[in-house]
Amino acid sequence: MFEVFFSHIQEKVSLNEVQKDILKTFFIPKKLRKKQYLLQQGDVCKYLSFVEKGLLMSYNVDDKGLEHINMFALEGWWSSDIHSFFTHENAVINIEALEDTEILMISSESFEEMTLKVPIMDRYFRILFQNSLFTKERRLISSISHTAQEKYIKFVESNPALVQRVPQNMIASYLGIAPETLSRIKKNIALGK
Amino acid sequence: MFEVFFSHIQEKVSLNEVQKDILKTFFIPKKLRKKQYLLQQGDVCKYLSFVEKGLLMSYNVDDKGLEHINMFALEGWWSSDIHSFFTHENAVINIEALEDTEILMISSESFEEMTLKVPIMDRYFRILFQNSLFTKERRLISSISHTAQEKYIKFVESNPALVQRVPQNMIASYLGIAPETLSRIKKNIALGK
DNA sequence: AAACTCTATTGACCTGGGTTAAGCCTATTT
DNA sequence: AAATAGGCTTAACCCAGGTCAATAGAGTTT
User: Fold this and answer.
1) Chain B residues whose beta carbon lies within 8 Å of the beta carbon of residue A63
2) Which of A13, A45, A112, B43 could form a disulfide with A91 if both were Cys (CB 3.0 to 4.6 A apart)?
């Protein structure tokens, strides 16, 4: 159950067996069925979750009632409404399983305790957040300076696994374009642009 | 010189005098004149900088030669090309002073050493990055689901200080809209939308 | 296998905001 | 104080991509 988990953490910091055993006590394994919610907008996000197997997506519904996918989380990714998790304010996103999924969850109280008992986890999450930060930065730049077609091409290049596993209308939503537009883009690309 | 600096850090973690003295040895004070570059696209970003006084902006030039402002940094904010700073790859952004500015800089080697000598700084930066992460997330959601006018109104609400200190065309660039559009939006708002 | 439900495609039409270009106003610079 | 530059506004025009609507598989349910 913890294979993917420890291997991902050890890409960033090293852990000894004692630390691993302590970590295991803080995380709760959970299985989600396809289409099952992990979090609903308006609830407080009590857990930060690591995907061991499967696929999650998070999305928000805007003031006009439109859904926008914010992020997908494959094996080895974390998912949560970070703001809600750390402040206990209401979540602004929904998290849903796109496939049957196995996760490891930690509550915010446990998170606090974990960083005190295994301080190197502050370092792990510092590195994790700093990496996500620059990925988001790139996405933000891309959302402003690229055309819909350029965004799609970049997405396919950097997320080949998702293209296989996620329906096309969800990729459109993630890219912030209409599904009809994505369909036309694919046609253009097939015709050699 | 370190007043704003320590007060900001101590909003997130507490430091004793010994830790403060150690930290002081890692940071280099520097003064920048208005319009002076702190970093240019293509160079490696050697420093992470904290703004004690003044105002920085970072921007990138896209494939089409268009400039996009990514972020402003007022007193109490950090600025750098995080990715370049941590990986030593070439920076994709420029950082420039919009006013005469005083900063505290730390090199990446010093950063590493600092986190080893004062491990609570891993925690400080974990919290800092996690907060920036959710701010970026919000901006990304906003860039997709709001109209140009809504984006501007939100910006004014959440950044009143910047509206005073930054020229309008730069705010337009930050919001990803044409300066002409922003001018029209302000007119609309003045006319009661 | 018929009835639903989801997803993708295609066409016709429309609009928010980009582009181009001109003119104006306020600071700097010389 | 004249010249130059940077910033702001306005108008005319245009287009990438959104919206609406119809059609058609592909997968599920009864």
Assistant:
1) 145
2) A45
Helices within B3-147 (DSSP H only): 3-9, 17-26, 82-87, 108-117, 120-145
Task: Provide the domain limits for residue B94.
Answer: 3-118
Inside any domain, residue B181:
no
Tokens of A139: 């996405």
Q: Which bases of chain C are contacted by protein, using any atom under 7 A from a CB?
A: 6-12, 16-21
Residues of chain A with pLDDT under 50: none
Domain count, chain A: 1
pLDDT per residue over B148-173, tens digit each? 999 999 999 999 999 999 999 999 99
Residue nearest to nucleotide C19 (CA to C1'): B178
Q: Quick: pLDDT tens for B71-109.
A: 999 999 999 999 999 999 999 999 999 999 999 999 999
Q: Read off the CATH number of the domain in which B113 is found.
A: 2.60.120.10
Q: Is the CB of B28 under 7 A from strand C?
A: no
In a domain, A113, yes or no: yes
| Residue B147 covered by a domain | no
Q: Decide if B143 and A62 are in contact by the 8 Å CB cutoff.
A: no
Is residue B148 in a domain? no
Q: Please tell me whether any atom of strand D lies within 7 Å of the Cβ of B67.
A: no
Q: Could you read off the pLDDT of A47-93 as tens digits, one per residue?
A: 999 999 999 999 999 888 899 999 999 999 999 999 999 999 999 99
